[in-house]
């Protein structure tokens, strides 16, 4: 045993290192391991600086920056895969495995979650065999998958391309919050709010699941649903893209697999109901083309039944509107489009316009009006583009024809145009891509024409020549564009029997309606100029009016051709309004020029309108146009020398007019017969109406002059704003 060091030892001997004690060595190793496990903050990791792991760390305090730990800049290294050794499982104790209480508890759990009431071997084998086919039934709703895909694409676009944000979004609360965040933590890039976040925020407002299940209970039988779907895609959809044909698979799965519905399925269930609703209104065309109806009396009865069924589908679908608004997915856009299509014949400038505006707002919320990020175009991208351009075209057309402001400016849209490479249609149906793009182009030309006409109305004499020249150029552009369209199968092929015959007729009616829309505004123009003053303007006005009158005659002839070859629909807004606008234009020309040139074509058009007015148009706002036509034509015929008293054919015309005043199922009251008879037998119309306030007859049909004829209530305003 060594003693203490002597006084005479050397310095080297004094400073000889002493081995550390075991306790100190263990503490040092623990401190070293702790130091190595220190987590670096995002700022130090990005700048590759040493971080002491504090919250906040010393370097972030010194640099006056926010210290956060999100591992956003942490490198992920691929670790080599080490095969796991095959460790034998613990042996099962038969006594505990086959315990009676354990098995009884398991059976109770199975009965609770699977509705299997009997756990016999045969029943359990049937359940096990059906598990393979029922795997899809427990999968998440396709709506949620589409919503996630939408979130990913829109979120990536906003995150990767923040400079591509529209100018108006730079003034939003969300963008300002993002700017503050960038000031505080410039290295942290948080994506914008997605659709899923919005749905989660509105989740307390969603209805219970039984609302969707109750709506789906109104689905027709599978065989009837298949027929209605065929009618929808073959007849109802024409030159638009309301719904892609994947909905057929969803409906088929509903009938075959009986998948439990949740509130997330509200958009496609509502869309399916509106598909049934719209196709029910056109069912009479499919039946007529099969030769099932021979007389008009046979058609009227099922038509009333069709209207009742369509209304029940519509009301059930509208009960889910709050859920559609809360979810706000692209399929909600489709549902609102179809609601607008159904209400378009009834109230185009009111209810239908509001449905389209809602659809536009939801589409904008889903960034459907913006160009998708780069990458290969998929089926879903193509469907989104077609849905957007469909709702854009429908909303634009209603706003133009009925004097409403546009829901979105063209300068705010940069979405990709539909592609003909990916066709979201069944192979057994003809591709309608060309017709759909032509319908969009026609609507935009009509919008340009409206702007040119408004410029003419507002222009003073020095600038009138330039405004008139612009309107004439648009008219010529319309003609040239129409001549360049495909002439076989698509667009301008009006050969009866072709697969797109009805769709092409509708496109031609829209083309002629654009000419009518341009020229009819100048029929009642009362401006007078000297012969040498503004000759170009007078020549332009006459050219536009002549093209307008030619298109009016062609529109009536096209409606007659469609009625002869296929049948006119009692629910088609395009057919009814095109024919009505044409007859109104010809009546206006007869009023201003005192000509009898268009007498026969006016009568032909009025007869076609009466054929179409027995359906949903009976109570529509467009009915006012038909009433004005009746009054105008009666006054015109009287001013040309006919007897002012009704008799023979005149009385029959009056009876037809009275029939139009009553809706389906309505019967004239007995007291209505008295003023009718008094008026017929030389009584004063004024006296009859004063004695019977319950009946509103046509005002004073005794003709005086064409000035009185032109003073029919609301006629000029009707030409300027209402008809389309």
Automatic annotation (TrEMBL):
Keywords assigned by UniProt, alphabetized? Metal-binding, Nucleus
Q: Which Pfam families match?
A: Fungal_trans, Zn_clus
- Please give the Gene Ontology molecular function terms for this protein: DNA binding; DNA-binding transcription factor activity, RNA polymerase II-specific; zinc ion binding
Q: Does the keyword Transport apply?
A: no
Which PROSITE patterns did the record assign? ZN2_CY6_FUNGAL_1, ZN2_CY6_FUNGAL_2
Q: Which residues cross the membrane?
A: none
> What InterPro entries does the annotation carry?
AtrR-like, XnlR_reg_dom, Zn2-C6_fun-type_DNA-bd_sf, Zn2Cys6_DnaBD
Any idea where the Zn(2)-C6 fungal-type domain is? 40-69
Q: Which GO terms describe its biological process?
A: DNA-templated transcription
Span list, region Disordered: 1-35
Q: Name the domain of life this protein comes from.
A: Eukaryota
Q: What is this protein called?
A: Zn(2)-C6 fungal-type domain-containing protein
Q: Which organism is it from?
A: Clonostachys rhizophaga
């Amino acid at each position: 045993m060594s003693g203490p060091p002597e006084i005479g030892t050397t310095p080297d001997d004094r400073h000889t290192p002493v081995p550390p004690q075991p306790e100190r060595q263990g503490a040092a190793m623990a401190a070293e391991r702790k130091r190595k496990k220190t987590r670096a903050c995002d700022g130090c990791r990005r700048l590759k600086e040493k971080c002491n792991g504090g919250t906040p760390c010393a370097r972030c305090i010194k640099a006056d920056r926010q210290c956060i730990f999100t591992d956003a800049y942490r490198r992920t290294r691929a670790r080599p895969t080490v095969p796991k050794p095959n460790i034998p499982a613990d042996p099962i104790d038969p006594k505990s495995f086959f315990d009676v209480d354990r098995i009884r508890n398991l059976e109770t759990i199975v009965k609770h979650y699977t509705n299997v009431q009997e756990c016999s071997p045969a029943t359990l084998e049937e359940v096990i065999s059906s598990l393979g086919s029922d795997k899809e039934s427990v999968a998440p709703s396709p709506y949620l998958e589409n919503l996630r895909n939408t979130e990913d694409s829109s979120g990536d676009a906003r995150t990767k391309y923040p400079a591509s944000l529209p100018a108006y979004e730079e003034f939003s609360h969300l963008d300002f919050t993002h700017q503050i965040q960038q000031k505080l933590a410039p290295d942290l890039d948080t994506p914008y709010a997605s659709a899923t976040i919005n749905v989660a925020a509105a989740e307390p407002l969603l209805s219970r699941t039984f609302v969707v299940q109750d709506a789906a209970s109104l689905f027709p039988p599978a065989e009837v649903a298949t027929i209605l779907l065929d009618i929808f895609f073959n007849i109802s959809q024409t030159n638009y893209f309301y719904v892609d044909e994947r909905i057929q698979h969803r409906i088929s799965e509903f009938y075959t697999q009986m998948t439990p519905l949740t509130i997330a399925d509200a958009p496609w269930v509502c869309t399916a109901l509106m598909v049934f609703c719209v196709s029910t209104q056109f069912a009479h065309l499919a039946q007529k083309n099969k030769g099932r109806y021979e007389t008009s009396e046979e058609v009227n009865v099922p038509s009333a039944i069709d209207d009742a069924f369509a209304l029940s589908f519509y009301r059930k679908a509208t009960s889910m509107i709050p859920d559609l608004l809360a979810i706000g997915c692209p399929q909600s856009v489709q549902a609102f489009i179809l609601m607008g299509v159904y209400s378009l014949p009834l109230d185009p400038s009111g209810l239908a316009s509001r449905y389209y505006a809602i659809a536009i707002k939801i589409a904008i919320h889903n960034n459907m009006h913006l160009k998708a990020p780069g990458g290969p175009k998929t089926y879903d991208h193509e469907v989104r583009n077609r849905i957007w351009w469909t709702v854009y075209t429908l909303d634009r057309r209603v706003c133009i024809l009925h004097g409403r402001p546009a829901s979105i400016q063209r300068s705010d849209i940069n979405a990709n145009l539909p592609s003909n490479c990916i066709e979201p249609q069944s192979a057994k149906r003809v591709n309608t891509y060309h017709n759909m793009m032509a319908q969009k182009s026609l609507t935009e030309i009509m919008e340009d024409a409206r702007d040119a006409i408004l410029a003419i109305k507002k222009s003073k004499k020095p600038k009138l020549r330039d405004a008139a020249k612009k309107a004439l150029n648009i008219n010529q552009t319309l003609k040239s564009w129409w001549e360049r369209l495909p002439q076989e199968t698509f667009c301008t092929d009006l050969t009866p029997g072709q697969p797109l015959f009805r769709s092409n007729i509708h496109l031609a009616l829209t083309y002629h309606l654009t000419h009518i829309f341009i020229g009819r505004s100048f029929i009642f123009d009362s401006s007078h100029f000297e012969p040498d003053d503004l000759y170009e303007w007078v020549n332009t006005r006459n050219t536009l009016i002549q093209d307008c009158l030619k298109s009016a005659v062609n529109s009536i002839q096209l409606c007659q051709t469609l009625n002869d070859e296929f049948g006119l629909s009692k629910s088609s807004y395009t057919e009814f309004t095109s024919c009505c606008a044409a007859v109104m234009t010809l009546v206006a020309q007869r009023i201003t020029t005192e000509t009898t040139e268009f007498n026969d074509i006016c009568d032909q058009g009025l007869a076609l309108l009466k054929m179409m007015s027995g359906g949903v148009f009976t109570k529509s706002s467009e009915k006012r146009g038909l009433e004005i036509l009746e009054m105008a034509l009666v006054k015109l015929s009287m001013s040309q020398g006919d007897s002012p008293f009704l008799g023979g054919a005149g009385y029959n015309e009056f009876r037809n007019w009275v029939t139009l005043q009553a809706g389906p199922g309505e019967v004239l009251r007995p007291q209505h017969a008295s003023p009718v008879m008094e008026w017929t037998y030389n009584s004063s119309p004024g006296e009859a109406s004063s004695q019977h306030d319950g009946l509103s007859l046509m005002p004073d049909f005794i003709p005086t002059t064409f000035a009185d004829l032109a003073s029919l209530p609301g006629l000029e305003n009707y030409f300027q704003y209402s008809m389309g």
